[in-house]
Amino acid sequence: MASNAIPPPALPASTSLGDGSNSFSLNIVTYNLNGLIGHGHLVLTELCSTVSNMGVIFLQEHCLTPANMTQLQNFDPLFSAFGISGMEKKSPWDFLKGDLLGGQPS
């Protein structure tokens, strides 16, 4: 039985640079979106919030076609997005199924 709970992102890694008088802190998190629609959108909204204080957010499995990558690029004005789509070889009219890399879903 599948749970409808939103999976939590990985705990953020934090690094500090400097000698104490001139220090710099950077929070980094990685998250497996499993698609931007639904839970992925909610979690990404939370990660981008100023409350989360994330400096870098690495995303996997966004399931966006090349034409829809602007959804990540325009998601939040405080973040810049860089990425590629794993669906570049798919036709916009193809039926999407299975693993984005051509495998079978498990």
Quick overview of this protein structure:
With 106 residues, the chain is of the alpha+beta class. The protein has helices spanning 39-48, 70-73; strands at residues 13-17, 24-32, 56-60. It is built from 2 helices and 3 strands.
Q: What gap, in angstroms, lies between the N and C termini?
A: 15 Å
Largest sheet report: 3 strands, mixed
N-to-C SSE string, H for helix and E for strand: EEHEH
The helix count comes to: 2
Question: On the 0-100 scale, what is the average pLDDT?
Answer: 75
Q: Please give the number of β-strands.
A: 3
Rg of Cα set: 17 Å
> Which word captures the global form?
elongated
User: Considering DSSP H and I runs of 4 or more, what fraction of the residues is helical?
Assistant: 10-25%
Q: Approximately what portion of the residues adopt beta-strand conformation?
A: 15-25%
Cross-sheet strand order for the largest sheet: 1-2-3
| Overall SS class | alpha+beta
Report the uncertain regions.
101-106
Can you put this structure into words, describing what you see?
The chain is α+β, with helices and mostly antiparallel strands and 106 residues long. It has a domain of 31 residues. It has two helices and three strands, in the order ββαβα. The protein has a three-stranded mixed beta sheet, covered by helices on one side. The longest helix has 10 residues. The protein is elongated. The C terminus is likely disordered.
Main attributes of the structure:
single chain; about 110 residues; alpha+beta; three-stranded mixed sheet; 2 helices; 3 strands; about 15% helix; about 20% strand
